[in-house]
Amino acid sequence: MFVFVLDKNKKPLDPTHPARARRLLRSGRASVFKRYPFTIILHDIQVEDSTVSECRLKVDPGAKTTGLAILQGNVVVWAAELTHKGFVIRDALTTRRQVRRSRRNRKTRYRATRFNNRRKPKGWLAPSLMSRVENILTWVRRLSKICPITAISQELVRFDTQKMHNAEISGVEYQQGELAGYEVREYLLSVRPVSAKTKCLVA
C-alpha cells in the first residue's frame, strides 16, 4: 500500500512508498494529514513544482462488500474492501414495520390515515440500496481529494447460468426450463428427496 501525498495547498500528488514517507516525516518536510487512508502533507512542494501521474479508481460493487482499488498504470497503489450496512437497515425497517402493525391492535388514540403522503417519488431506491450507493459515492469523493484520480471504472458482470449448461441455447429455449409443462406442486412432488427408510428398502 502506498502513502497518499498532498502539497502545501492540499492538492493531491503522486502516492509515494511508505519508506520515503517515513523519511519525509523524520526530516520535518511533511506531517501526517490523515490516519486512514494514511496521507501526509508536504510543507515545501506545490503541484506546479512536480509532475503528477494519472490514477484510475476501480470499483467492484457487491451486496455486502464493495472492492475499491486505485491503479497507476499497472501498479496497485491502494486497495480496500468497503463493508455495507444494507442488511442492518433492512432488519431495522422490518422491526419498525412490525411495531407499527402491532400498534394497530392496541387501544390507542385515533390516528388519521396517511396513505396519500406515502407515495414513492420518481427514481426512488430502497433505503438499503441507497445506503450502498451513498457509501460508495462518499469514498469516491474522499479518495478524489487525496489522490489525482482522472478516471473511474466499475465492474458490471452478468452471468447467463443457462448458457453455462447449454452453450447452444437461444430464443424461446430460455423459457423452457425445468418447470416447463409442470404445475409447481406437481414438480415439487416429483423431485422430492427419497427418505432414508425407502433407501433401506431399495438396498
- Give the CATH level 1 class of the domain at 3-85 and 126-161: Alpha Beta
Q: How large is the radius of gyration?
A: 28 Å
Low-confidence stretches: 197-203
Content of β-strand: 15-25%
Give the SSE layout.
Layout: E1 3-6, E2 12-16, H1 18-27, E3 30-34, E4 39-42, E5 55-60, E6 65-72, E7 75-83, H2 86-103, H3 127-146, E8 149-154, H4 161-165, H5 184-190, H6 196-202
Parallel strand pairs: 1-4, 5-8
Antiparallel strand pairs: 1-2, 3-4, 5-6, 6-7
Helix pairs in contact: 2-3
Give your account of this protein's structure.
This protein has 203 residues and is an alpha/beta fold. The protein has a domain at 3-85 and 126-161: Nucleotidyltransferase, domain 5 (2-Layer Sandwich). It has helices at residues 18-27, 86-103, 127-146, 161-165, 184-190, 196-202, and strands spanning 3-6, 12-16, 30-34, 39-42, 55-60, 65-72, 75-83, 149-154. The model is unreliable at 197-203 (pLDDT under 50).
For the structure shown, list the relevant keywords.
single chain, 203 residues, alpha/beta, Nucleotidyltransferase, domain 5, 4-stranded mixed β-sheet, 8 strands, 33% helix, flat, disordered C terminus
TL;DR?
The chain is of the alpha/beta class and 203 residues long. It has helices spanning 18-27, 86-103, 127-146, 161-165, 184-190, 196-202; strands at 3-6, 12-16, 30-34, 39-42, 55-60, 65-72, 75-83, 149-154. The chain has a domain at 3-85 and 126-161: Nucleotidyltransferase, domain 5 (2-Layer Sandwich).
